[in-house]
Design goal:
Strand content of chain A: 5-15%
Radius of gyration of chain A: 21 Å
Distance between the termini of chain A: 28 Å
Helix content of chain A: 55-70%
Largest interface: A-B, 75 and 77 residues
Structural class of chain A: mainly alpha
Shape of chain A: globular
Strand order of the largest sheet of chain A: 1-2
Number of strands of chain A: 4
Largest sheet of chain A: 2 strands, antiparallel
Oligomer: homodimer
Amino acid sequence: MHGTNGSSRTNGVGGRRRGRNGEAIGLSVNFGPLAHWVGFNLRMAQEAAFQAFSLLSQEIGESPGRFATLTLIARNPGISQTELSLANGRDKSSLTPVVEDLVKRGLVERKRMDSDRRTYRLNLTPSGKRVLTMLTRCARRHERNLDRVIGERDRKRFIQILKKIAAELG
Amino acid sequence: MHGTNGSSRTNGVGGRRRGRNGEAIGLSVNFGPLAHWVGFNLRMAQEAAFQAFSLLSQEIGESPGRFATLTLIARNPGISQTELSLANGRDKSSLTPVVEDLVKRGLVERKRMDSDRRTYRLNLTPSGKRVLTMLTRCARRHERNLDRVIGERDRKRFIQILKKIAAELG
DNA sequence: AGCGTATAGTTTGACACCCAACTAAATACT
DNA sequence: AGTATTTAGTTGGGTGTCAAACTATACGCT
């Protein structure tokens, strides 16, 4: 099971038949090789998971992007923006408006470093810690849902593979 | 190994030590719970894979987004834009400029339907088929790289899980 | 000291995407 | 037939992202 293509029609998404008269696509979409390829399925899964977390996190008025940022600052007090962007897998320029907003809303504190006055040190404020706590609760709920889908047995291996992909294709 | 957090420092990304004098983050970044969560690792893996395919596909002057679109049109001749956007997991409005561009560059042909003059039928032109062939070659190369990372043994299960996530969190 | 290079962060311009509002066509209801 | 509802696609507004150019500091070499 790898080279064999067969037909790869699925009904997962494609659209329920409206069968006029054999109107080209009867009932479902043919994904062709996409169905068996990692890249495509990785994208679809990631976007579904993101979407789901987005819903949870907006219940408390935050965006999912903020969550990783806050966690990384909490875990690495005094981290610089460049280090943060690197760890977060985003360009440092993407971080500028995010940090700006977090500072403005009083979740993050930002001080120039003495030894190197180009770089900032980031830290959570007490208010930032409170928000992070709530977001973390959301995230745990989200993770429980994912765990349920993945299954306890495969979970560890699954994450291992994800990490490996990120590491070896970075 | 699941609940135990320990420390979760990794050196995968964080930045090699520049050890001034214990300057807050010595050598690596602490990812905290992120390290063990599916959502974060899913994002990182997806983005790494996307990036890698992006490099391959731009060798032939195309973007990765185009690839799934062209494949779906090839496999479902006469598909409508809405069906396409649904299968592709994008909003239909996102497709407007993409299709526009593909038509302008002569890869896709677009005809109004007779029975319902609101909808378009999309088809590849011969030129579009040629481009898709090249892109598919790229994609196969990319998949081989991913396979090497994932390992033949886990591959099938891995994709199954990705599909399940996309389906059950959609 | 002085010049060239590297680094931290910002700015700018481009894209890809989403959502909500819109237009035009089809269908359903009566 | 006439109005209301649904559907296919487009438009407009906003967001998040990257890459490249820029500013300012720091470092290295002579």
